[in-house]
């Protein structure tokens, strides 16, 4: 069961990183056409967090484990590079949510700066504690997690809030159904991304025995849950930014029926 869970986890990681990379590239190409910063920040954020950051991190850890040399210097350095890349991507995502939803709010800029500080300070201390070697959440990791585990929730809250506003505009005929639905799906996808981040820490929170964590039932459940949320998240990302024709018809048909 653990082997199946591990395979699903790796598959979902590849899907998550690959689709996030494709969506990120398309958003950045769109930004070159429109000249708009939100598309650029979001596209770059998805690239750096989900594709290059998370993908490189997981790949490096898996390779070192398979080699039986978790302290391999090159592997540890690559893991560190993955973390740095991921953190830069998180800063892009924080910039996106402030620029799009709270551009005129001073508290939002202060909050984003505070979250970025926690992220970098926590990561640096975690690295100094040897966290890049065994990749086990401990010590200062939780300082950085205060940002990693909450920034998708902030995006979700803002998306749902804007979705409710757009619903009122749609009722007056002032907003397109597909645009309104985009905020709903983006909010759900962000919630799913947060759930995936939190579920990876289930073994630690449920106090799985150190040293037996790789073979514990808790790890199996954690992998399966994370895989499910990861796949759900990338599907939501795709429907948000590049909805296929069948989905467009469904949304517009539901809006017409409601009207």
Mean pLDDT, to the nearest integer, reads 85
Globally, the shape reads globular
DSSP strand tally? 0
- Measured between the Cα atoms of the first and last residue, the distance is 49 Å
Radius of gyration: 19 Å
Just give the CATH class. Mainly Alpha
The helix-strand sequence is HHHHHHHHHHH
For the structure shown, list the relevant keywords.
259 residues, mainly alpha, Rhopdopsin 7-helix transmembrane proteins, globular
Task: Please characterize this protein's 3D structure.
The chain has helices at residues 2-34, 37-67, 73-101, 106-128, 131-134, 141-148, 151-171, 177-199, 202-205, 217-241, 245-258. Helix 4 (106-128) packs antiparallel against helix 6. It has one domain (2-258): Up-down Bundle (Rhopdopsin 7-helix transmembrane proteins). With 259 residues, it is mainly alpha-helical.
Q: In terms of topology, how is this protein built?
A:
Blueprint: H1 2-34, H2 37-67, H3 73-101, H4 106-128, H5 131-134, H6 141-148, H7 151-171, H8 177-199, H9 202-205, H10 217-241, H11 245-258
Helix pairs in contact: 1-2, 1-10, 2-3, 3-4, 3-7, 4-6, 7-8, 8-10
Summarize the structure.
With 259 residues, this protein is mostly helical. The chain has helices at 2-34, 37-67, 73-101, 106-128, 131-134, 141-148, 151-171, 177-199, 202-205, 217-241, 245-258. Helix 4 packs antiparallel against helix 6 (141-148).
């Amino acid at each position: 069961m653990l082997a199946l869970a591990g395979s699903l986890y790796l598959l979902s990681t590849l899907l998550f990183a690959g689709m996030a990379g494709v969506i990120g590239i398309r958003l950045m190409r769109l930004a070159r056409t429109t000249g708009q910063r939100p598309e650029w920040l979001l596209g770059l954020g998805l690239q750096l967090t989900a594709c290059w950051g998370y993908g490189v991190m997981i790949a490096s850890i898996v390779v070192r484990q398979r080699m039986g040399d978790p302290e391999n210097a090159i592997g540890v350095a690559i893991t560190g590079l993955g973390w740095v890349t991921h953190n830069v991507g998180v800063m892009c995502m924080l910039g996106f949510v402030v620029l799009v939803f709270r551009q005129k709010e001073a508290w939002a800029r202060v909050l984003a700066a505070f979250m970025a500080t926690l992220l970098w300070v926590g990561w640096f201390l975690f690295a100094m504690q040897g966290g890049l070697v065994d990749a086990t959440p401990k010590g200062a990791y939780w300082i950085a997690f205060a940002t990693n585990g909450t920034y998708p929730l902030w995006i979700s809250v803002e998306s749902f809030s804007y979705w409710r506003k757009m619903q009122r505009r749609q009722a007056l005929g002032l907003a397109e159904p597909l645009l309104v639905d985009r905020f709903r799906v983006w909010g759900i996808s962000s919630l799913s991304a947060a759930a995936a981040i939190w579920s990876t820490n289930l073994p630690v929170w449920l106090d799985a025995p150190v040293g037996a964590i790789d073979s514990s039932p808790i790890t199996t459940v954690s992998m399966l849950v994370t895989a499910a949320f990861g796949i759900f998240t990338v599907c939501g990302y795709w429907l948000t930014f590049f909805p296929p024709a069948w989905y467009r018809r469904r949304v517009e048909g539901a809006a017409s029926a409601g009207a």
